[in-house]
Amino acid sequence: MNDNHPTPLIGILTARNSNGAIAGNGPLFIELQKKLISQNGISFVFIPQEIEKDFIIGYIFSPDDNRWQKRRFRYPDLVYNRIPFRKSEQDDQCQRFFSSLKARNIPFFNPCFIDKYQLYELLINHDILKLYLPQTILADDKKNLNSFLKNLKGIYLKPRLSSKGKGIFRLRMNSPSRIELEGINSQENYKSFNHFWECWNKELLEKNYLAQEEIISAEYEGDRFDFRILAHANHDEYVLTGVGIRQSQEQAITTHIPAGGKLLPYKLLQANEHDQFIQTIVPHIGKALSDQFGYFGEFSIDAGVSKSGQYYIYEVNSKPMSFDETDIEERKIEQLCRLFLQLTDIQK
Fold first, then answer.
1. Which of the listed ranges 49-53, 184-188, 260-264 does the model predict with the highest average pLDDT?
2. Rounded distance between C-alpha atoms, residue 110 and residue 13, angstroms
3. Does residue 234 lie in a domain region?
4. For the chain, does the N or the C end have fewer beta carbons within 10 angstroms?
5. Which residues are CB-contacts of 192 (< 8 A; sequence separation ≥ 6)?
6. Which CATH number does the domain housing residue 289 bear?
7. What pLDDT, in 10s, does the model give residues 301-314?
8. Residue 3 lies in a domain
9. Which residue, 163, 184, 213, sits at the end of a domain?
10. DSSP letters for 293-333
11. Are 122 and 231 contained in the same domain?
12. Are residue 128 and residue 269 in the same domain, yes or no?
């Protein structure tokens, strides 16, 4: 493409999967391309291995032909980071590319995956957001974890670097002589904490687990639910894009739909108190993330409310998954394209 081409050129950065194919959310990339074309923009998808000093080999979707085409592109006016694997993002080649973008004064978002414990450390030092955090510690010390469990009676064990509910367990002390560990598809009992630690300490340490207070969640028709919140940047602010409800079904460990959770419309449970909580946390989380890690153009929040009415922030995700709610996905496309054009216009 001609270096003087006036069209805002958006580069969508992804990675190869273990089979060598280009990974990522293909339907999202296609819808972004269609929307951008309607707004006189254009996008292409690329991977770090096909970046050269003066150009990039990438893949452009043609709506007219309904297919992807491989092309050579100039460096884009903005890069949207959708690398789906932590290991790929931390690769030296990818990090050098991020450095080159800064040197070329090319804006990019989102800068990184979020470590769950680093997120906790960030939010616990925020005057407002700290009010909504479950108690959390690292699960790397036998004595500390035992005291934490004895005090709370129920905790969640989560890998610091996982997503979609993978590797999550609930640990409960039903009596001094009975420890119960429950996963999405499993349940184990241990005669003591020492017995549990003997069986699990290697796993907890190798996968960098944290321990988080179990919240007794509010329920709808007998099953717990929580909020999935999507937000995007708009100039110097962060605005709510959409809210969905996820409800547990077959198991109560997580409400994620791939793990058997159920989708409910937010309007079904909408309340002024819920709205106020969500509108309060979105701008503060967005600003805190960008101040700490680099510019975040979007993020999603897993949050909930207890039976006693206390609100909680459970997790924040830097690469939001697709929402099953069609209206939220449509607004996401609109918000992203608006942000692309905003940032490239500011850059010009």
1. 49-53
2. 10
3. yes
4. C
5. 176, 177, 179
6. 3.30.470.20
7. 999 999 999 999 99
8. no
9. 213
10. HS--SEEEEEEEEBTTS-EEEEEEESSPPPPS-HHHHHHHH
11. yes
12. yes
27-31, 75-79, 161-165, 212-216: range with lowest mean pLDDT: 161-165
Q: Are residues 129 and 153 in the same domain?
A: no
90 Cβ partners below 8 Å, 6+ apart? none
How many domains is the chain built from? 3
**CA pair distance 204, 162, nearest whole angstrom:** 13
What are the φ and ψ backbone dihedral angles of 88, each rounded to 5 degrees?
-65, -40
pLDDT 10s digits, 124-174: 999 999 999 999 999 999 999 999 999 999 999 999 988 767 889 999 998
Residue 255 has pLDDT above 60, yes or no: no
Q: Which residue has the higher pLDDT, 343 or 6?
A: 343
How high is the pLDDT of residue 183? 86
Q: How far apart are CA 63 and CA 158, in angstroms?
A: 41
Per the CB < 8 A criterion, the answer to whether 115 and 161 are in contact is yes
Q: Does position 122 have pLDDT exceeding 70, yes or no? A: yes
Q: Which residue has the tokens 């992203």?
A: 336
Q: What is the pTM of this model?
A: 0.92
* Domain residue limits at 188: 136-213
Cα separation, 307 vs 279, whole angstroms: 21
Domain boundary among 213, 248, 273: 213
Residue 83: which of 14, 163, 129 has the closest Cα?
14
Structure tokens that stand for 81 in this block: 């980071």
